[in-house]
Amino acid sequence: MENKAIFMQGTNNMVWKDVPVPAINEGDVLVKVKAVGICGSDMHYYQHGRIGDFVVEGDFILGHEAAGEVVQIGNGVKNLKVRDRVALEPGVTCGQCEYCKTGLYNLCPDVRFFATPPYHGVFTNYVAHPEDMCFKLPDNVSYVEGALIEPLSVGLHATRRGGVKLGDTVVIFGVGCIGLSTLLSSKARGATNIIVVDMMENRLQIAKKLGATYALNPQKINVIERINEITDGKGAHVVIETAGAAMTVKQTADVVKPGGTIVLVGMTPKDKVEFNFMKLMNKEGSIKTIFRYRNLYPTAINAISSGLINVKNIVSHEFDFKDTKIALDYVANNGDKVVKAVIRME
């Protein structure tokens, strides 16, 4: 069984290596990886070698949005069998800390997360993973869709934290993959007026196709004034920031409805950003944050399988595994064209 992996070796450089097929422990399954999404965090590591305190040292495998086929099962595996198609939730937690035991496992301080240093990712033919973090895909959900379960779970977590409900007005700053996933989740939860903001026209056009009511480009109009016009000066029930830009984090307070909720999703490059807390206090608004997601893979899979959420249209580009470096370089240099790129591993 041959296992090849592509490693980043310094920034903007990659090398191929033959690596051992990973051994599976009790409760693990061996998965032949079939599709991997390229995430913004992969690009940040590839181009800069670090994200905050997480620093790439030595050769490193990227990729954490994965789906594949079970090819071997370990002792104690009960719910999966060989040839099952699965989406892999990338974080393996300790299961013993207070956060794991209270259901907040995404906050586990000892999580081992694919492609977060020092833990390698999934740009490789085979990976071993615990059975309970592999979720079976129905026959009508493709491997590419399975790879998108991870970013969709972020959007589902954001809208759940924001309490998006039937009839709500939602503003989403940033409509990259996470913003579009948040749009789809908002629509599925019943939001009837969804306003998206982004500087890239290709993303705005896709957002319109996916159900955005209004798509605003801040390079062309004053978005704060336009949102106030759209909402008759009332603002939005829920404002979700996925762009990770200091300016849009600040603007969330301008457009949230009195009594409304802001959800911060995007990670800003700076540790500190300016924010008008007095404006939010005068509105008795709430701020919530998210860190990844929890207990949402089954929900995301069911939503896609049932047709309630269609993630396929988020994918703008597909590449073969052999062209992984070409894919990352293309994404790095074509932000005005790429919405979501996926690596097909076969």
Describe the secondary-structure layout.
Blueprint: E1 4-8, E2 14-18, E3 28-37, H1 40-48, E4 50-51, E5 54-55, E6 60-61, E7 65-73, E8 85-88, E9 91-92, H2 98-101, E10 112-113, E11 126-130, E12 134-136, H3 143-147, H4 149-162, E13 169-173, H5 177-188, E14 193-197, H6 201-209, E15 214-216, H7 223-230, E16 236-241, H8 246-255, E17 256-264, H9 277-282, E18 286-289, H10 297-306, E19 317-320, H11 324-333, E20 341-344
Give me the CATH fold name of the largest domain: Quinone Oxidoreductase, Chain A, domain 1
Unreliable spans: none
What gross morphology would you assign?
globular
How confident is the prediction overall: mean pLDDT?
A: 96
* C-alpha end-to-end distance: 15 Å
Q: Which strand-content bin applies to the residues?
A: 25-35%
Class of secondary structure makeup: alpha/beta
What does the radius of gyration come to?
20 Å
Largest sheet: number of strands, sense, barrel closure: 7 strands, mixed
Features:
single chain, 346 residues, alpha/beta, Quinone Oxidoreductase, Chain A, domain 1, Rossmann fold, 2 domains, 7-stranded mixed sheet, 6-stranded parallel sheet, 28% helix
